[in-house]
């Protein structure tokens, strides 16, 4: 049974949280509410999230400050953040959102279909990332347990490694197609940031997988990246 991804919804207005839940319920993932920046940071201490939808205008700790705390933590710095704002202050305000680490900046009222599509991209990436990391971890444990036969890596381990590499290649191909589509159809900063985030994630996964190849040394290097 595939575990659902968690999506963190941060807004001080209950009606806005309710609206977000209605929009994202079709994704069939776990939606977690936070009514303040402080509450969001507490949730991030214990749970892993695929993406964060963060309201900019909140009393006390606003969205920018909350994002700064998220990006300073090693555990949470790579979680994609989508800023939501009811006020459009112009390009400077938008740039501040991207500078704070957001992958997108959406003004309210937003198109529910567009928001759902953007969130689904990060949910899919998160799920693929988790699956590949689990497979890499299982393979590493098997390699450590079985050791090597007289001819080097066992046939079974080599087969698993080849299957894992093929699955990652499929994800890389999808990301490459997405990047090409973004370059052909849009020059929007949010789209470019999204593509860059995908590329960084996949580069890390490929590096971890390459560390499992025969002749690269100890498998402990893989565990440090998982």
TrEMBL record:
Q: Which domain of life is it from?
A: Bacteria
* Domain Response regulatory span(s) in chain numbering: 6-123
Record-linked SUPFAM superfamilies: CheY-like
InterPro entries, per the entry? Bact_response_regulator, CheY-like_superfamily, Sig_transdc_resp-reg_receiver
Q: Does the keyword Secreted apply?
A: no
- List the PROSITE patterns: RESPONSE_REGULATORY
Q: Keywords assigned by UniProt?
A: Coiled coil, Phosphoprotein
Which residues carry the post-translational modification 4-aspartylphosphate, per the record? Answer: 55
Which parts form a coiled-coil structure per UniProt? 161-188
For whether the record's keyword set contains Phosphoprotein, the answer is: yes
The protein depicted here goes by the name Response regulator
What is the originating organism of this protein? Streptomyces venetus
């Amino acid at each position: 049974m595939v575990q659902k991804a968690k999506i963190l919804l941060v807004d001080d207005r209950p009606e806005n949280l309710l609206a977000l839940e209605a929009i994202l319920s079709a994704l069939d993932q776990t939606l977690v509410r936070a009514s303040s920046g402080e509450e969001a940071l507490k949730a991030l201490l214990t749970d892993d999230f695929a993406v964060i939808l963060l309201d900019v205008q909140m009393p006390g700790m606003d969205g920018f400050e909350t994002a700064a705390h998220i990006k300073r933590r090693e555990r949470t710095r790579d979680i994609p953040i989508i800023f939501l704002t009811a006020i459009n202050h112009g390009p400077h305000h938008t740039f501040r959102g991207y500078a704070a680490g957001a992958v997108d900046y959406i003004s309210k009222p937003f198109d529910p279909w567009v928001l759902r599509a953007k969130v689904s991209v990060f949910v899919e990436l998160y799920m693929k990332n988790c699956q590949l990391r689990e497979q890499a971890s299982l393979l590493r444990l098997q390699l450590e347990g079985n050791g090597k036969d007289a001819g080097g890596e066992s046939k079974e381990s080599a087969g698993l490694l080849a299957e894992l590499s093929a699955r990652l290649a499929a994800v890389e191909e999808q990301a490459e197609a997405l990047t090409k589509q973004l370059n052909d159809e849009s020059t929007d900063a949010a789209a470019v940031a999204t593509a860059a985030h995908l590329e960084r994630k996949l580069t890390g996964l490929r590096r971890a997988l390459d560390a499992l190849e025969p002749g690269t040394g100890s498998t402990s290097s893989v565990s440090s990246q998982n």
